[in-house]
Amino acid sequence: MKMQLKLLLILIFSGFTAWSQVEFDARVSKETLGVNERLRVDFEMNQDGDNFRPPSFQGFTVVGGPNQSISKQWVNGRASFSKTFSYFLQPNATGKLKIGQAEIDIDGTTYKTLPVEITVTGAVDVPKDPNDPAVAAAENVHLVAEVSKSDPYLNEAFTVVYKLYVSRETSVTGWNEVEAPKFSDFWNQSIDEKQFKIYDGSFNGKPYRYVILRRTLLYPQKTGELTIEPLALNINVEAPTNRRDIFGMRILRPAQIKVSAPTRKVKVKPLPEAGKPESFTGAVGTFDFDVTASKTKLDAQEALDLTISAKGNGNLKLFNLPKPKLPSSLEVYEPENEQDIRVSVNGMSGKNAQRYTIVPQQKGNYPIPPINFSYFDPATEQYKTLSSDEIIIDVENGPATLAQNNNKVPVEAQKQFSYIKSEANLISKNQESFFGSTIFWSMLGTPVLLIPLVIFFGRKRREYQNDIKGNRLRKADKLARKYLGDAKKNLGDQTAFYLALEKCLHNYLKARLNIQTSEMSKERISQLLQERGVTVETTASFLKLLESCEFARYTPASSVAMQHDYDQASQVISDIDKQL
C-alpha cells in the first residue's frame, strides 16, 4: 500500500513539473528559400504571457501578421496550452539572414527565443496556383524605370521616370515605398507629382494602364558606368482568380505583392579636353552671360554694385562664376550670391548671380576689364566663350590719386602739399651757436628715438593687414552703418528704403556674428544671438525687422510704417551692441 502511494505521488509530481516548465520557441516553415518565396515564422509558448516583443526582422519585409492563435486541450487527465504568434516574411536580398530573438514576459520573468539563421538563394521556380490572387497580381503589375539618356556628359541633365503599369483586369488600392534609390553618384532633385493621372499605354505588346509615380532630375558627378538603384514598392491589389461567381464574372481577391524596378545603368562621358578654355569652371548647358554696374559715375566713398550673372538652362547650382579683376585702389567686399533657379524635368533654368559691393577711395577713372565666361554645350558638343564689355567707373569727387599713368602729379595733389616750404633754411643765422645747441641735439636725437616707434607701429600695421577675418568684419560693420544711413535718406521710397535696411541688417549680422548670407536662416540667427547673451525680446525684434523687409516686397507700406521700422532698427542695433 505504501509503495503504491509513493508511485502515485511521483507521477503527480512529475506531471506538475512538466506543466510548470516554460517553453518559448521560434519555428520557421523552411530554412532555405528563394528570394521570390515567402517564409512563415511561428513563435510558440506553452504558457500564456504578456508584452510579446517580436524581433526587427532585419533583411525581410513583413507581408502578413502578426496572427495569433490559442489552443487548450485536456487529454487523459493532462492539460496542455499553446499560444502562437505567426508572421509571413518576404526576403529583401540573397545571402545569410538571421531572425533575431523574440521576447515575452511570463509570471514576471522574461523569456527569449534563440536566433534562427535563414539562407536566401536566387529566384526559384514556384508552383503557381491559378486561384492565388498574388500570382495573378504579379503577372499583371509591373514597375519600370525609364531613363531619358543612357550616355550623358558629366554634369549634363537627364531624367529617370518611374511608371507603374497595371493590367485592365487588376485594380490597385494603395502602395508604400520599401526601398528608395539613393543616387549617390548624382546631384538629384525629385519632381513632385501634384496629382496622379492615369494614362493608357502598352506593356510587352498588351494594353495596360499606367501612372507616373516619380520623376527625378539627375546630374552625374562622376564619369564611367554608373548604376541607378531600383525603386521597390509594396502594393495592395485586387486581382482576378480563375473562379467565377453565379453571373459568370471572375472573382477578385485582395493580395499584397512587392514589385521592384530593374536596375538601370548609364555610361557618363567625360568633357573633352581638346579646346577647353582657361575660363571654363564647369558650366554645362546653354547660357547667356552679363556683367552690369549699378552706377558708373559716383563720388569717392560711395558704393556701387557690380553684378556678374549667368542665365539659361544647365547645371546652374554646380559651377562657379568667374571673378572680376579690379584695380587695387577699389575696395571690394565679399560677393553675395543671388539665385533664381527653377527645377523641372527639362533641367535647371533661371539665373545664378554674384553681387560685389565696391567702394572707390579716390578720384579718377577705373576700368573694369572684360570678363570671360565659358561653358560646354552638349547639343553641339563644343565649348563656347562669352565676354562682357569693359566698364569704366568714373569717380568725380574725392581725394585724388598721387600718380596718374603719365607719372605727373595732378594739380589737386600739389595743392595738398602747398604748406611745405620748397626752400628750407636749416642753418641758424647765428652760425657759431648752432652746433651743440638744443636744436642741433634735437635734430640729431629725434630719428634715434623714432626708430622704436616706427618698428612698433609697423608691426601693428602688418598685424592689422594680416587680420583678414577682422578686416572683413570691420568692413561689414562699416557697410551696415552706411546702409542704415541710406535707409534714412530713402524714407518714403518703399523699395529703396527696405532694400537698404535689409542690407544693413545682413551686414550687421556678418560683423557681429561672423556668418555669411547663405547661413542666415531665422533659426540660426536666433540661436547665435541667444548663445552670445542677447535677450529673447531683442532677438525677436531683430527677426521681426527681417520679416518686414521680406513682406515689403509684396505688400505696400506707409511712411509711418517705414519710420517705425527705421527707429526700431536703430534701437535694436543699439541694444544688441550693448548686450554683446
Q: Layout of helices and strands, plus pairs?
A:
Elements: H1 2-20, E1 24-28, E2 32-34, E3 39-45, E4 50-53, E5 60-75, E6 78-91, E7 95-99, E8 103-106, E9 109-112, E10 116-121, H2 133-140, E11 141-147, E12 158-167, E13 171-179, E14 186-191, E15 198-203, E16 206-220, E17 224-228, E18 232-244, E19 250-260, E20 264-268, E21 280-293, E22 297-298, E23 304-314, E24 330-332, E25 336-344, E26 347-360, E27 364-368, E28 372-377, E29 382-387, E30 391-395, H3 411-416, H4 431-434, H5 438-466, H6 468-489, H7 494-513, H8 522-531, H9 536-551, H10 559-579
Parallel strand pairs: 2-10, 21-28, 22-30
Antiparallel strand pairs: 1-3, 3-6, 4-8, 5-6, 7-10, 8-9, 11-12, 12-16, 13-18, 14-16, 15-16, 17-20, 18-19, 21-23, 23-26, 24-26, 25-26, 27-30, 28-29
Helix pairs in contact: 6-7, 7-9, 7-10, 8-9, 9-10
Taking Cα atoms only, what radius of gyration do you get, to the nearest Å? 40 Å
Low-confidence stretches: 12-19, 402-419
Number of strands: 30
Structural class: alpha+beta
Shape: elongated
| Beta-strand residue fraction | 35-45%
Number of helices, counting only DSSP H or I runs of 4 residues or more: 10
**Helical residues, percent:** 25-40%
Calculate the mean pLDDT score and round it: 80
Overall tally of domains: 4
Largest sheet: 7 strands, mixed
Give the CA-CA distance, first to last residue: 99 Å
